[in-house]
Design brief:
The protein has two helices and ten strands. By secondary structure, it is an alpha+beta fold. It has two domains: about 40 residues; about 100 residues, Immunoglobulin-like (Sandwich). The strands form two sheets. Strands 3, 5, 7, 8, 9 and 10 form a six-stranded antiparallel sheet that branches. A hairpin with a 4-residue loop joins strand 8 and strand 9. The protein is elongated, with a radius of gyration of 28 Å. About 15% of the residues are buried. Keywords: Membrane, Transmembrane, Transmembrane helix.
Amino acid sequence: MEETINNWIDKARELLEEWGVDPWILAGGAGLILLVIIILIVANRKPKATFPGLVINLFQIAPLGRDAFLKIQNPAGPVILSQYRIIGRNDVLVKNHLSGHRMENQKEYSILLEANGDKRLEPDFSLELTYITEEGKVYQQKLLPGQQRVEPPKRV
């Protein structure tokens, strides 16, 4: 294997001498192209979310299992809730729509959920909220009420 690599390197040197190209110039050009590609990749990355996101304060399912009460808090600056989506269940409805509402700093907001089928409401779903900050940045955040946990917000 080592002989094959050495033979290939020797053939490449002969070919470069035939063309009259200095190997150092070729290596420098390849390094420059690699540097430009790395700079372009780094420059096109999205910045990480700096907004701390929303927090679940309380999640309760009613004794009959038809309704649920979710209380969330906004620990950061004011945001406008633009939309929400329930993931994992098709039969869960939101009774009070908060879309378009301004969520102030350090205030709690309640979301009332209702099962719209024959199944009881189980904590096996997640709620994805999309909101806009005062700076106009859009974030998506997934709330997992059954686990009393939130995923960090992602900038969209």
